[in-house]
Amino acid sequence: MDESIKKSYEEWEKQTESLIKKYPEEGNFKTTWSDEVKRLYTPLDVGDYSQIGFPGEFPYTRGVQNTMYRGKLWTMRQYAGFGTAEESNKRYKYLLEQGQSGLSIAFDLPTQIGYDSDDPHSLGEVGKVGVAIDSLADMETLFDGIPLDKVSTSMTINATASILLAMYIAVGEKQGVKRDKLRGTIQNDILKEYIARGTYIYPPKPSMRIINNIFEFCSKEMPLWNTISVSGYHIREAGANAVQEVAFTIADGIEYVKTAIEAGLDPNVFGKRLSFFFASHNNLLEEVAKFRAARRMWAKIMKERFNVKDPDALKLRFHTQTSGSTLTAQQPENNIIRVTIQALAAVLGGTQSLHTNSMDEALSLPTEDSVRIALRTQQIIAYESGVAKTVDPLGGSYYVEALTDEIERRAFDYIKRIDEIGGMINAIESGYVQQEISNSAYEYQKAVESKEQIIVGVNDFVIEEKNPRKTLKIDDALEIKQIEKLRSMKSKRDNDAVREKLENLERAARTSENLMYPIIDAVKVYATVGEISNTLRKVFGEYKESVIF
Amino acid sequence: MIKVLIAKPGLDGHDRGAKVIARALRDAGMEVIYTGIRQTPEQIVQTAIDEDVDILGVSILSGAHMKLVPRILELLKEKGSRIPVFVGGIIPEDDATELKRLGVIEVYGPGTSTSEIIEKIKGYFENANI
Amino acid sequence: MQISESQIVNGVSSRDRKSFAKLLSICEDNPVMANKIISRLQRKEAHVVGITGSPGVGKSSIINALLSKLSRRVGVIAIDPSSPFSGGALLGDRIRMQSHATDQNVFIRSFSSRGALGGLSPSIFEVCDAFETFDMDMILIETVGVGQSDTEIANIADTVVLLLSPDGGDEIQMMKAGIMEIADIFVVNKSDNPASIGLKTKLEGIIKFGGKNIPVILVNSITGDGVDNLIKELDSRFERIRVDGTFASKRKKRVFFHAQSFLRRKIDTIMQSIESDETDIEKIEKELIKKLCS
User: Fold this and answer.
1) Per-residue pLDDT for C268 more than 60?
2) What's the ipTM?
3) Residue A143: which CATH number?
4) Which of A112, A119, A128, A201 is best to mutate for the B interface (most B CBs within 10 A)?
5) Which CATH class is domain B3-129?
6) Fewer CB near the terminus (10 Å): N or C of chain B?
7) Is the pLDDT score of C173 beyond 50?
8) Does A311 sit behind a cis peptide bond, omega within 30 degrees of 0 on the bond before it?
9) C43-243 belongs to CATH 3.40.50.300
């Protein structure tokens, strides 16, 4: 059959070439990673069907479940939260009353980077992009009246994940909920912080030791807790292309599985507690192919590299967020359409959960109206578009299958290169990964400026815009209030006990002991996020970014 | 030779814009010093003065611009420096107006082309020399 | 905006950072004027230490670690390469030293190599002299770090520190190529990597084989481990070379190298003003001499 298709295809190409002389093609016919896109894809471009396979079966190209959205729609999970613990607590209670069963918590930058609210570094940042937590006192307020045995809590926290998790355990204990009953997730993906997001504290090696300690601790004491969400989102937003997003995220994933094995965990068990987090951009078909390629690659890696037998531990499950960096400040209504395309790509790609961005995010924090439209976008895709009616509806598309193969091949090339460098930690320390991303970001910017890449409303189809829109702002008084709260807490606590527990933590950090236990002891006597982090800074030093442009 | 300091105050790690700008200014023949992320206003101002830069570009996306940029302007003034300052980031319209009133020469929002910024900087010094 | 020579002289004498920053700009743009101003200022002989080694080996980090532990006045001259295409430059060495940006005993300044080969900047001699007028106890020069051609640092530094890391594969290769000859102290970074001990042993073997006596120090530039030993070594060397005459002879040579660099710059500037479509070498030479004498 191939032979006859090949013959017909060649004839068709010949015919087309002669037509082109009269009606030339014009436009940008390249993938976002600069490969040529062919005029037409045919069965000749699609490889072996075993690589496509069936949903719920290795290599999981078509999805991790047999029935996908026919069984259960993806989870529509909108990440939110800012201000003080009191305000967030009210918001969470409201959401729970509305029937939501999971909480997704955003922390402010000082909390994420281990600075107290009164630290000079925190100026202007307290409560800005999430809730401010200085000590267990704030965490008690945050979960006041929320039974921790009834909810599952997802915390976007990385460098200080051990401290926030320790506080969560302590709040649970005060409520009478044992740690083995607590359910939730910490992001805990420090590698992408060095690569792209920037909320690191210590150098990579001690950071990985803390992650190792968390893995070991949770496997013994918190069997229901998801200890890591390997995130490509921020890598993509920093300028990586789709291939790099998949490659670097999976390379991070490999490093974490290695760490788990070092901590004595069985990858057959650990693999089930691992999840991923990707971005979705505007190039619909590339994005669909990206998700499919990522699933196939991870299954192969778990099977071949780590010898995993349990099928559930081979499955790449992921959360998707639409891309904040593609949203424009110009003609912001257009962002609704961008978010729609991106959300559609995530669904066609088989995501397990999805956050849709609000149209005004390129201007400031989103308003309530725009947050609602973002959620409605997901609902329209789910209930009106019909794309959820069958599993992997684009499977078998010649172009999508060819793109899936190509992304996989190129991403595996990157992983090979990273292996040669000696793994992801070396690749990050040497600046290799950052340099690759930075180059892509710069190339993209140049393409935009030369109009090789059109962005509607920005470099083409521009209109004169007036009337600044209404945007939401956060009250600065919050910072002062939070600092006052911190000072009064410090004057009331047992400062001798704090000193003793911090000394104990410092001693433990200099040995190979599991740090989760001394951190739990320290948070219980109300040692602050800043004090605990500073204690570890003394031992581990601080990471300084590589000089990469 | 125009010497520029690109600075990132505040705690957000979104340095994509800062790095793209730094690179574009380099390719336009300027000498560009980059501070790295998480800089305090004090560090930025002392660096600008010690490096004797011609212009200071501040990139900020965390939303803390109304605290940090005025502080930078105040410190420059305190130290008797007249280094011009431009700002890039997610800055709502009314904040941008206020920052300009305080002395910022230009505020660049998302989607600004690097060539626009380059032309503006070059133009600024051509005019200043006349 | 222009400030006068006298204002700079007065400012630098009273340790005004802004005046000193201006003086450094003058060193870059107008060496004649710079030398004139410097000659009017009081100078203190500081220990000039060159830090060299391949890219990524941790030169900026080690300087940062030194700054944290040296409780004295230290100047840092950080040099990055210029772009051969645009002539512009990205100066990023500071990133790792920014925690010292507001330290009143520290003055960090970034320089572009402005096309110069050899790992330094065309104005390095003027700049180094200028730092000695700003009451510095030690001046640290971070070279571009391109490897073999980074040997010019020996013409200006009293002490050359060669930084190596166990992660880099080309280290031994580089040493064979000749940069070893100019090193006065070897420092092996990333002492937390077990391979660093192996590298130290290997180096000591090579040094012994070469019949030399050069110290090899293990450090971790991120935690600061071993940096005290490096400081001790630097100080004892400085004391030693001041006694045994090495320092005096180095300084004497530095004046000659300074003159050489100054004249080269002058010629370069003139060459740029000569029409590039002139093809007769003799004519160009005559033109050059005429302009040199005028």
Assistant:
1) yes
2) 0.94
3) 3.20.20.240
4) A128
5) alpha beta
6) C
7) yes
8) no
9) yes
